[in-house]
Write a structure and sequence with these properties.
Structural class of chain C: alpha/beta
Number of domains of chain C: 1
Shape of chain A: flat
Helix content of chain A: 25-40%
Chains: A mainly alpha (99), B alpha+beta (514), C alpha/beta (511)
Number of strands of chain C: 11
Largest sheet of chain A: none
Number of helices of chain A: 3
CATH topology of chain C: Amidase signature (AS) enzymes
CATH architecture of chain C: Alpha-Beta Complex
Radius of gyration of chain A: 22 Å
Oligomer: heterotrimer
Largest sheet of chain C: 11 strands, mixed
CATH superfamily of chain C: Amidase signature (AS) domain
């Protein structure tokens, strides 16, 4: 299972939107293989009868009242933007498809 | 793009059985968003706000920001689940759906994955021809909407050829409930109509619950239609396997839903009949051409890497809450239809006209706003449906039930004739304001000043002495010519019955004077 | 005067401020002077806002003069780990991708610190997005351990620990996802507390792994940590995972510290040959001291702790890969456009390639893999099961004892660069601290002395059941008192004088 090849790493980089260089992919392929081999140790004890824990402190039904609270001004919203037109964020052309 | 080859619909039905599946996204009209205290633009009060003015840090995915669930949205989702005949989860969770897109501020959508809040339901849907279907519901789950992209440059304003895009995150985080049907078999030739009637029923349900503005032209209700075709088995042979499905997105009016399903059946049939294969893909509906075009095929890029949202805790609806919400449910649409038909005293034909037009809610709300059932039906199924057809949209997107009730009252009071009322409706549909405002602005009110009418009548009588003579001889039907002339002179802004009365009166007195 | 002021604990300084014989402006200026003198060598800070700090201090002095009732830490300066967002002050999380970003809001712990009248000096250095155990992964250069400038100050919160150890700030805020508060405390001879998960709001803490992250105090004494936890802990409706119940005073727990009758469990799996000899010897000496103070020392077993690192390095990258997706060049932070322009996808890819360092990329790819279709059950799903098993180990142990004790980390501070090329070796630093994050329980690291073989600080870690943070302050406070008595003064009194180190470091730099 820990066999990871460069093609897989390139695919993961694409999913994660990181334009890794060829050298990085090569390097990471080797490293990931080692790391995965180490972390696969979890399968030794993760038997079907053990329930998963996703929250360390069990709580439930944490809700907010439907009341308008603090929001940002448009100036605050755009203050960190690399590019805006004064009211909206500007991004370069999208070639993919709308989701 | 090349126009797809289509097979004749009836021929397609002979060879294939259509199987449809529908995903409807409902924007809830809570005051605030699903996970942030920012005002919700899907609530009428905040609709149309300037870009990026309805955002809290979490709506922009600002570093460090955290979501908190809107309890009202959860209650509304449970109510909707119950109205869809679903079971409500004992416990359910939110999950992150990971994909990059510039309208998705965090680059993951908080949704529900393997633990929806509601599942396994059924909705009764009645078609125009009276057939009744039980549409099986797979699940209804809570999630958040994405922001809005505007593509700039290029000729079409569409994504292709655009030079850059603008992002407004007001819509990001609007509470959504996604309702997913199971595959619907047996629709046969009615499959397109069934798809339309189903969405119309969902709309009736959310309106009666009061949980969504349900205005399709605003995207409060959005539909994705899955269509596949199954080759009919020869007699005595086992059933053929299900075909590959396509998912048509961006279908945002009742009319389009029916057309899109029909188009997809015809398109797929043409391909399959020639021995081709259907690509599993999303397709985009184009309202203008009535066609679909391919989107991206399903691929590895659809690896959404779902995992339980660590920033949010499980939702565990108490059985008391579920029963409380169940007790507060409005009548199911089918029962409601039966009751309203009786209350309104419509004939089968009249009532069917309302239902088929998807106008039940509109008529009911118009009656609730004070109009008589007859008047409400007349305007919605008559002039408004004609207008909607001409404008290729839904009648409900043109005017509100309150507008129609106001109009009916103006007609009732004699302020408007039917003819004038039709002009007023056009004005309202064009966004000129309420009926009264249109009447005032366009000067469309009936001339009820007898003085002006008498002057016009006297002039008409004087210019047509032969007619006057006939009237005086008791040939009352001759008055029609004078009435016509007077109505023309008044530009239609007169009540014909009153004009007739006055014509006879003046003919008599004019005669006496002569 | 100013040398004296920086040597005061926060509690002492608070008392002096309250009595009026020192002003907050004087105290703040003393710390700013110290930063100016030694931070060139230590590099604990990424950003210092002296002007705003002095304004805040002057305001507190005015309010105090006007007779306003102020809290025990009002007017006391504080350093903030750069993982916490601060309104009007750059917040980078140690990453190039957030360089220059000025948040429009304050993190809840920062807001509480301000409301308590504390004076924010600036932002401290950290491993990029808190990924690391040495602060070498900061995009803005490493922080140096005040005990030995050739060595790491721990991580990810090396900046906060070093700022406190170097007397640049009396106290600081840190964040702990797998040991990022406790391990730096261990290697710098300071106190670090990871409170119970949910005790301190995560709102405004730039998320690494949402189900593991917890903000906590970084100080020189246990009482200071308690006073600071009393300020920052408490329910926050903006964080769904925030615990709603009220907390007892941690400061009271320290003041009443008494270990008579306390049952302390030693986790036998974390008392092994894998730990440096000086780390183990100081650990056992501390336990003997506690035993003499009336505590009962019991050996307990936690058989699943050995799976903790494996589970942690699946859960953390998985959650981080999703949390870090927001850094995409659209709304804030860096934007890098490929040569000749590109689609938004290409711009995102180029930005993330240029803006993230190698450790961040490594973990994002790892996490993406662990969550991807077909691998979820084997990796992320299994790791979440190990979490259950680790919790069960804690439950079983706490059925027998009141608190657990372990060495905080396997070794004393290692040299910069020593483990940079071996991620797996670096990950082993967290072996004793990670179980607490997986289970959500609180942990404290308290100085236990210097390792005889290298003269570097060693910490001892105590762990308590969830919501029983006060037990940590009790045992930590008691041990600190016994040790300081034995040493004849705080451990940090034995730290080298930084002004001479600064010169030495500069000279070595020439060679």
């Amino acid at each position: 299972m820990s066999e990871i090849n460069a093609e897989q790493v390139a695919h993961l980089a694409n999913l994660a939107r990181i334009a890794l260089t060829e050298e990085e992919i090569e390097h990471l392929t080797a490293e990931l293989g080692q790391i995965m081999q180490a972390v696969e140790k979890v399968s030794e004890v993760a038997t079907p009868d053990v329930p998963p824990t996703s929250h360390p402190i069990p709580m439930q039904n944490v809700f907010r009242d439907d009341v308008v609270g603090d929001i940002l001004t448009v100036e605050q919203a755009l203050s960190g933007a690399p590019e805006s037109d004064g009211s909206r964020f500007v991004v370069s052309a999208i070639l993919g498809e709308e989701q | 793009m090349a126009r797809a080859e289509l097979m004749d619909f009836d021929e397609a039905l002979e060879l294939f059985e259509p199987v449809i599946g529908l995903e409807v996204h409902v924007e809830l009209n809570t005051r605030t968003k699903m996970f942030s205290p920012a005002p919700n633009p899907a609530n009428s009060e905040f609709h149309g706000a300037e870009p990026n003015t309805l955002v809290a840090p979490v709506d922009l995915g600002l570093p460090g920001s955290l979501p908190v669930v809107n309890g009202e949205a959860v209650r509304n989702s449970i109510s909707l689940g119950l109205a869809l005949g679903c079971s409500i989860a004992e416990s359910c969770r939110f999950a992150r759906k990971n994909y990059f897109y510039p309208d998705l501020a965090k680059n993951y959508q908080i949704s529900q994955y393997d633990e929806p809040i509601a599942f396994e339901g059924s909705v009764e849907v009645e078609l125009e021809n009276g057939r009744v279907f039980q549409v099986p519901i797979e699940r209804a789950h809570m999630e958040e909407d994405a922001g809005k992209l505007t593509h700039v440059g290029g000729s079409t304003g569409r994504i292709h050829g655009a030079e850059y895009s603008l992002v407004d995150y007001n819509r990001a985080g609007v509470p959504l409930v996604e309702i997913v049907t199971k595959p619907i078999f047996g629709g046969e030739a009615d499959a397109p109509a069934l798809a339309r009637a189903y969405v119309s029923t969902i709309r009736d349900i959310v309106i009666s619950l009061g949980i969504s503005e349900a205005r399709m032209e605003r995207g409060n209700l959005r539909c994705d239609a899955n269509v596949s075709l199954r080759r009919r088995a020869a007699a005595g042979e086992p059933a053929e396997p299900l075909g590959t499905r396509t998912e048509t997105k961006n279908v945002n009016s009742f009319r389009s839903i029916e057309r899109a399903v029909r188009h997809e059946i015809q398109r797929q049939a043409a391909i399959l009949a020639k021995g081709g294969t259907i690509t599993q893909e999303t397709r985009h509906w184009h309202e203008d051409t009535g066609t679909t075009s391919p989107g991206r095929p399903k691929s590895d890029a659809d690896d959404y890497r779902y995992f339980p949202e660590p920033d949010l805790l499980p939702v565990v609806p108490s059985r008391e809450l579920v029963e409380e919400l169940r007790a507060a449910l409005p009548e199911p649409p089918a029962a409601r239809r039966r009751r309203l038909k009786a209350e309104w005293g419509f004939t089968d034909l009249e009532f069917q006209g309302v239902v088929n037009g998807g106008l039940l809610v509109e008529v009911a709300e118009t009656v609730a706003a004070g109009a008589t059932p007859a008047a409400a039906r007349k305007w919605w199924t008559g002039e408004l449906s004609r207008l909607a057809n001409a404008r290729e949209t839904d009648a409900a997107s043109l005017v509100t039930p309150a507008d129609v009730a106001e109009l009916a009252a103006l007609v009732e009071a004699g302020t408007l004739t039917d003819r004038l009322a039709r002009q007023v409706l056009e004005g309202v549909a064009d966004g000129e304001g309420s009926p009264q405002q249109v009447v005032d602005a366009r000067g469309l009110a009936v001339v009820s000043d007898d003085g002006a009418l008498v002057a016009a009548i006297d002039e008409a009588l004087a210019s047509q002495p032969d007619v006057l003579a006939k009237i005086r001889d008791g040939k009352v039907q001759a008055a029609g010519a004078v009435i016509g002339a007077v109505m023309k002179a008044m530009q239609g802004k007169a009540d014909a019955a009153r004009v007739r009365e006055l014509v006879l009166e003046r003919a008599a007195s004019t005669g006496a004077d002569a | 005067m100013s040398e004296h002021l920086i040597r005061l604990t926060a509690a002492q300084l608070g008392e002096r401020l309250a009595s009026g014989d020192v002003s907050s402006v004087e105290a703040t200026r003393a710390h700013l002077d110290r930063i100016a003198a030694v931070d060139g060598a230590v590099h604990a800070f990424l950003h210092v806002d002296g002007e705003r700090a002095l304004d805040t201090a002057a305001d507190i002095d005015r309010r105090r003069a006007a007779g306003e009732e102020l809290g025990p830490l009002a007017g006391v300066p504080i350093a903030i780990k750069d993982v916490l967002v601060t309104e009007g002050m750059p917040s980078t999380a140690g990453s190039r991708i957030l360089e220059g970003w000025v948040p429009p809001y304050d993190a809840t712990p920062v807001r509480r610190v301000r409301e308590a009248g504390m004076v924010v000096l600036g932002k401290t250095n950290m491993d990029e997005f808190a990924m690391g155990s040495s602060t070498e992964h900061s995009a803005y250069g490493p922080t140096y351990n005040p005990w030995d400038l050739e060595r790491i100050p721990g991580g990810s919160g090396g900046g906060s620990a070093a700022s406190v150890a170097a007397f640049e700030a009396p106290v600081a805020l840190g964040s702990d996802t797998g040991g990022s508060i406790r391990q730096p405390a261990h290697v710098t001879g300071t106190v670090g507390v990871k409170p119970t998960y949910g005790a301190v709001s995560r709102y405004g803490s730039i998320a690494l792994a949402s189900s593991l992250d917890q903000v906590g105090p970084v100080t020189r004494t246990v009482l200071d940590a308690a006073l600071l936890q009393d300020v920052i802990a408490g329910h926050d409706p903006r964080d769904s995972t925030s615990i709603p119940e009220a907390w007892p005073s941690m400061a009271d727990a320290v003041r009443r510290a008494d270990v008579a009758g306390l049952r302390i469990g030693v986790v036998k799996e974390l008392d092994s040959d894998g730990f440096q000899s000086g780390v183990r010897s100081r650990f056992h000496e501390a336990l003997e001291l506690l035993e003499r103070g009336g505590a009962e020392i019991v050996e307990v077993s936690a058989p699943h702790f050995e799976y903790s690192i494996a589970a942690y390095y699946l859960i953390l990258p998985a959650e981080a890969s999703s949390n870090l997706a927001k850094f995409d060049s659209v709304r804030f932070g860096l934007r890098v456009t490929p040569e000749g322009g590109g689609t938004v996808e290409q711009v995102m890819g180029a930005t993330r390639e240029a803006g993230f360092g190698p450790e961040v990329k490594r973990r994002i790819i790892l996490g993406t893999y662990a969550l991807s279709a077909g691998y979820y059950d084997a990796y992320y799903g299994s790791a979440q099961k190990v979490r259950t098993l680790v919790q069960r180990d804690f439950d079983a142990a706490f059925a027998k004892v009141d608190v657990l004790a372990t060495p905080t980390a396997p070794t004393t501070a290692f040299k910069l660069g020593e483990k940079l090329d071996d991620p797996l070796a670096m990950y082993l630093n967290d072996i004793a601290t990670i179980p607490a994050n997986l289970a959500g329980v609180p942990g404290i690291s308290v100085p236990a002395g210097l390792a005889p073989e290298d003269g570097l600080p060693v910490g001892i870690q105590f762990l308590a059941p969830a919501r029983e943070d006060a037990r940590l302050y009790n045992v930590g406070g008691a041990l600190e008192r016994l040790l300081v008595e034995q040493w004849g003064g705080p451990l940090l009194d034995r730290a080298p004088d930084l002004s001479s180190h600064e010169m030495a470091a500069a000279e070595e730099g020439v060679v």
